[in-house]
Amino acid sequence: MLAPVLRFLAPRRRVYFPGLLDHYQPIARGMTLLNEALKRSIKVHQDRGFQVLAGEIDILEAEADKIKRRIRNHLPAASLMVVDKTLFLDYTRRQDDILNNIQEAVTWLGLKDITLPPPLGASLSVYVEEAAQTVEMLRPSLMAAIDFILRGHRARRDVKSGIHDIRQQHLKVFKAKRALIVAAYDADLEFRQVYQIMRFVEYVFRASHSAERCADILRAMMAR
Q1: Which of the 8 DSSP states describes residue 116?
Q2: In the structure, how many helices (H) and strands (E) does the chain have?
Q3: d(CA 14, CA 19)
Q4: Domain count for the chain
Q5: Alpha-carbon distance 88 to 86, whole Å?
Q6: What is the tens place of the pLDDT at every residue in 157-198?
Q7: Parent domain of 126
Q8: CA-based nearest residue to 135, from 73, 35, 49, 211
Q9: What does the alpha-carbon distance between residue 28 and residue 11 come to, in Å, rounded to a whole number?
Q10: How far is residue 206's CA from residue 111's CA, in Å, rounded to a whole number?
Q11: Alpha helix locations (H) across the chain?
């Protein structure tokens, strides 16, 4: 009697994993919109187009929260999960944090118009693109980890290599953050503007850091 029951439960205990990929989609879109919002802010300041982009990010954040709740509300008992339940819940929170930080970043960006010196504006654009790269690299690592955990189709070393690459990418963001803070202080700007830039830079950094933390949790899941 036990074998048929286990065969019945096996597919059901794994359906929560694809939900992580569903949850990732609005997050990736939010990072793209943040980059567009920054470029628009540098060119034309907070016009109607900027406000539309900020509103779309708010919508994406609500969508991501809805998906996260759906995933959590349909989890099986911890004994039926193929990974540690606490790790899985922590992953959903960290992945959700990426978009929360994106939302905060665009809020600080839109707080008040900033006239940026061209070199500083260009550096900010590159910085956001580097952070976006960290987030973008999370998706293939998530897919590879799921494939390894559920089916064992990927070599462990290949999945770990992708996770290592995410860490290295986030290190670039960390170094760029420090350089941007120095550049902001050196620029001929009011302190209010410098502080606004610093807060924006900090939340973009946190988005990248949350993606790195997601990668660390994926590795911990694989170690079970």
Answers
A1: -
A2: 7, 0
A3: 10
A4: 1
A5: 5
A6: 888 999 999 999 999 999 999 999 999 999 888 999 999 999
A7: 2-222
A8: 211
A9: 28
A10: 19
A11: 2-12, 16-44, 48-73, 85-109, 118-151, 156-186, 191-222
